[in-house]
Amino acid sequence: MKIGTLFGFEAAHILPHHGGKCSRPHGHSYRLEVVVEGPLQHDGPATGMVMDFGDVKAVVRRLVIETLDHNDLNAVIPNPTAEEIVTWIWGRLEPELPNLRRLVLWETASAYAALER
Q1: Could you confirm whether 33 is annotated as catalytic?
Q2: Most distant CA atoms of the chain, gap in Å
Q3: What is the pLDDT of residues 80-94, one digit of tens each?
Q4: In this structure, are residues 9 and 71 in contact, taking their beta carbons and an 8 Å threshold?
Q5: What is the C-alpha to C-alpha distance for residues 5 and 36, in angstroms, rounded to an integer?
Q6: What is the pTM (predicted TM-score) of this model?
Q7: What top-level class would CATH report for the domain 2-116?
Q8: What are phi and psi of 81, to 5 degrees?
Q9: Helix, strand or coil for residue 51?
Q10: Phi/psi of residue 96, nearest 5 degrees
Q11: What are the Cα distances from residue 62, in Å, to 19, 65, 68, 69, 95?
Q12: pLDDT, position 51
């Protein structure tokens, strides 16, 4: 069974190796989809759930959103392309969400980077 939740954050960046307008400072309203997979739990407070959505949200907010929201992404990730950002996010989340299976980072309404395992 898989469950997922969505997050949003605002951030600015430049792409230092880009030859076009993205080499200038600009920002995005990012959307992040986080998917975890696992069996339904059979006891405890998460009975009938893969994982409590509130627990997923708390981890993502603490490890990702608090760092990236309203920030200069170049201060966190040297070349913050969508692909590099989603890879960075995976590295932060996987230790605390070992059943992480998919991340989708929407940089615009029509462009995203996804990482699945």
Answers
A1: no
A2: 55
A3: 999 999 999 999 999
A4: no
A5: 9
A6: 0.96
A7: alpha beta
A8: -70, 165
A9: coil
A10: -100, -15
A11: 34, 6, 10, 11, 13
A12: 96
DSSP per-residue letters across 9-40: EEEEE--TT-SSGGGS-EEEEEEEEEEEE-PP
In this structure, what token pair is assigned to residue 100? 């992480």
What value does the CA radius of gyration of the chain take, rounded to a whole number of Å?
Answer: 15
Q: In which band, very low, low, confident or very high, does the pLDDT at 116 lie, cut at 50, 70 and 90?
A: very high
Cα dihedral 2/94/113/55 (nearest 10)? 50
Cα(6)–Cα(26) distance, integer angstroms: 23
Q: Quick: pLDDT tens for 55-104.
A: 999 999 999 999 999 999 999 999 999 999 999 999 999 999 999 999 99
Q: Known catalytic residue: 17? A: no
Of 10, 26, 70, 116, the active-site residue reads: 70
96 class by beta-carbon count within 10 Å (0-12 exposed, 13-18 middle, 19+ buried) = middle
The verdict on whether 22 is a catalytic residue reads yes
- First vs last Cα of the chain: how many Å apart? 15
